[in-house]
Amino acid sequence: MSEDERGKKPGHRHAAIRARHVATSFDAASPHERLERQTLPVRLTRVGVTTGFDLWARLSAALCRRLGWYPRVEPYVGYGTEHYSRLICRTVLSPPGPQSSSVSRGIWTALTVPAAHTRVAIAIDSVPIETVQVGDSEFYDAPDTRRNQSSKLALSDRSGFLDLVAEHQLEPGPHQVTYHVSRRSLAPGPLYTIPSSARIGVISDIDDTILVTQAPSLLKAGYNLLLANPTKRASVPGMSVLYSRIRSIDRNMPFFYLSASPWNVEATIRRFINDHGFPAGPILLRDLDPRPKTFIPSTVQHKQEFIQQLMADFPRMRFILFGDDGQSDPSTYAEVVRRYPGRVLAIGIRQLIPRESGLPSVKRTSTQPAPEMDVPVFYGTTGANLMKTMLPYLEHICRHGGPIIGS
User: What GO molecular functions are on record for this protein (predicted)?
Assistant: First the structure.
């Protein structure tokens, strides 16, 4: 089917979906991390790294195109409500031919070459969306119909990323987003449409919370991320059962997964979540490409901004937070509780065992104890441990009590 035919046929049945190009707060620089706030040596270093990355990207892209490679789309995030969806994808260069459905080791995905400024046609359930470039923002960008303009193709940024908000009317439940670039077949991705009636959601860390990564040990974490067979990654015992039991309390309860891993491994993590029986949901990762104003966001910054985005996207929803005590999740979640009083229902902290934390067992109590908080915090080394204390509490709160935001 030609591009013209593909664009016209759905148009006979449905009006085109309006969308805007935005920059979310996920990887935006906080005020104290902006380039102009840094010392001269830091600014020079960041500019040098950014310039070096840009040079590498241009040279790599030129070489790939000489080899006959051309752009394809990697679909990432798709989530929203009946009224809008937030869509993120990336255009990268790859050899001719169909894309393999098997997942690759991290070392190969880390070497992905971005296809900058590539035109992408996007459709939701075969209905094309109208898109437009409206400039960059470093803060949460809520839907605003006054800023909509008409265009049939969206343009990815210099790192190949494309971030859109599409306004529409969709039934809650799973939908499909398709992305198309010239000379490639359609690239499908999931779209999770969350009903407005959903009042409780789950935000879960990935590394060492559901997926054994051994993040406190840089060498072990690097091996697991880059060299380990992605189909043989281990799940934290009992966590998929715990999450499934929580989902059974309310089938409308959405699950959001976050990690400081780069977007390149999104397909690997999605495959892991599916293979190990975790509830499906949007996966939000980190852009590791250095940029002059945002540079590379820290793990803490990335998670705080991820949660900030979801708090703004779903202002009437309360959240259950899951993390681990291997790095900074307890203190990060304590800051979330402080910033958003009444929005956090409970926190589950998975405690790392000695060989995961890299600490001798005689010295190991808690790698990162949680500060005092005004919400209940539950601890356990496995999903079964957490389930004993946390699940009864959540069942009682979800079914019998707890104020609803905005009611």
Answer: ATP binding
